[in-house]
Every structure is written in C-alpha cells, then in structure tokens.
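Lab manual, section 2.4: Encoding a predicted structure.

Procedure: take the sequence of the chain (208 residues), apply the prediction step described in section 2.3, and record the output as structure tokens. A sample record is shown.
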Amino acid sequence: MGNNGAEQCGVVYANMRKIAVCKPKICLICGQEYQPASGRQKYCHKCGTEVRRRYKWSGLAQYLIDNKDLLQQRERERNQKPERKEYLRAWRIDHKEQNRESMNASGRKWVKNHPEKARLKNEKRRARILNGVIDGDALTLEQWNDTIEYFDHRCAYCGRQLEKLTIDHIVPLSRGGAHTKENVVPACRSCNSSKHNSSLLVYLLRRD
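Recorded output:
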C-alpha cells in the first residue's frame, strides 16, 4: 500500500530541498479534489483537521474516564500547595465581584428548584462551621429521604404526617451534635421551633 502512495508522487528540488509533488486526489469525506502533501494523505486539509480533532478528543475523553480517581487525587494535592490556595482564593473573590448579579440570580433559581438539597447544603455548612464536620460523614439527600420514609413522612415528636418536614438534630449542632444520619429526625416546623437548641430529654420533659 505504501508503494501505491509513492507512485502517485514525483520528486522535485527547490532551494536544495527535496519536495514531493503528488497528483490531485479526491477527499474520502467531502468528495472534493485537493492537492495532497504526500501519497498517504486521504483527506483534504479541512476534513483532515476535523478527523484529527475528533480522534484527539475521543482519546482524551476515554483517558479522563479511565483515570478519573487518579486525576482527582492529583488535583487535590495540587490545590493543597500554598501558592495554589492563594491563587484560587484571589480568583474566587475576583470572579464573585465581576459576576455577582448573575451568580445571585443563578443561586436563587437553584434554591427554588432544589429546596431539599438547598436545606441540606445550609445545614452541612452550619455543621462545618460549628463542629468541623467532615464532608464524607455529612448527611446526604439519599439518607435524609430514607429517614423520612422510615418515619412514614411523620414528625418524630408530634406524629403528624406532613408533606414538608424539617431536619431536626437530636443533639443540636450548637451543643456539639453532628450533621449525620444518626443524629437527625424529621420534625414539623412547630416542633422544631419549640425544641430549638434543647437536648432531647429536656424537650420531652418540657412537653409533658
């Protein structure tokens, strides 16, 4: 096959350099005639560029999928470097200042469309501030939904069955409680407000 390509090209010399001069070909993709640079060229310049781009990105996508964990670990290690932390902090501040209105609008839209996730996110942030909760241990949306199912969509304190229930921490975050599945129960707004930051025993005795 290599000889066939070579037979379609001649050789000329220009400025003491050997240059291949090939016969015009028909592009295998677009069907247009083009002047190849070598006998092995199958596509015109435009189609060849697109073929190489697709091949490159398909290979890159597969590499990212196959090495996802490794690449994430490398990124975490890179972001722990002091100079990288300082750069990211400055970038976030600058980006927030330049895009404040659009970010606020986008945030409000997300909260409106994902109220449960927004509530969990706020609780997780509050727990992190108060008690330094590790993200991997924090309550997830799936765990919260399982808890609601376990209580049959009822308030853990008054037993009322409601569509919307709030997260109540058995041991309040302000008293060192964790934002984990073991420390949360569903509660109606009234019971949650009434319990406030009291311990479970104190709240139950006060109710009685």
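Check your result against the sample. Residues 27 and 43 are 5 Å apart (CA to CA).
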